[in-house]
Task: structure prediction
Amino acid sequence: MTNAVQLTGLTQPELVLFLETMGEPAYRGRQLFAALQHRRLRSFDDITDLPKDLRSRLAGVAQAATLKVESTYLSSDGTRRYLMKTHDGLPVETVFIPEERRDTICFSSQSGCPLQCTFCLTAQLGLLRSLTAGEIVEQIQIALNDAYGTGVKPPRGTNLVAMGAGEPLLNLDQLLKALRVMADPQGLHIVPNRVTVSTAGVVPRILDLANTSDRPHLAISFAAPTDELRDVLMPINKKWPLEELLGACKVFEKTLKPGERLTFEYVMLDGVNDSEEHARQLANLLNRHNIRSKVNLIPHNPADPLPYRPSSDAVVERFKNILESKGVHTYVRRPRGRDIFAACGQLAARQTHLILASKLLLSELTK
Ligand code: SAH
Result:
């Protein structure tokens, strides 16, 4: 059913309008929105408060769900990774990370990714396609239903991070649409203030985001303090080099709310970008632009075909100390779900599938 309307990507007013075009009163639209977005029901058959005849008419023209879960992986630290497939057979990955006081869901904005960051496994897939708003919303519904049961209210708050596969700012319209759908108090009720979008540095879209009301928080993937090194690690830097990127961050800074900071993520690659000199260069660069920000150091998550190793704890600590001594707020991000390929930069459905399959085969053969 390729022409079917994907209902999970519609806001409540749009859904009301859609049902009105089917000759239904507005309250039916509101009822359907609550069923899909608040009760997180994924099949018309389950929406038993709608008349049977309406349900079968809906099934003829629309879809309540399009993503299918292919596999679920559970990490020893409680992190869960979902490998899903779109209706056209493309991989989508989502990670659910339980934390003491809240849960974080890391979702994908694209299947694959067009950027070619050398330290990220997803890059090896290339871009398969951008995801629709409905496909973004569904990832959150699937993760919450699996963690707590269909429609059960999560016991803790939910934070969202657009740090799965893809470059969210190359799919900004659908991303913002998904955020509008999810913010509805009669639906998932996850407001943009609970959402962080991470970008490799798509400068014009950073400026667009700065002009968006009710925008999510922003994180920038930095990875290197000089153009020379960043050109190699993140080729997008050749298009929008550091001065332009930091210029856009400066514009964005003007829209920060009290207490809000811009986040700079810095993946730590052993012997590549983790020296004392790199730390000093990074601190000087950030101080020169004087942006209200913090730095998150992310030890590299290794994955077979990637030519890097994570920096040691001692090196990460030294890097952090240098940044802090120069007044830069710095945090070290603890990796989650590494054992199931759920950590940053490890999402690349096809490859990890193969890796896991071959591991399994090996253990079978050596039994
Ligand atoms: N395209 C977006 C969002 C996805 S990446 C972006 O680039 O920001 C999310 C974060 O994971 C980025 O900060 C990226 O630098 C980091 N990352 C990518 N590969 C990694 C790896 N192998 N180990 C640790 N972090 C990685």
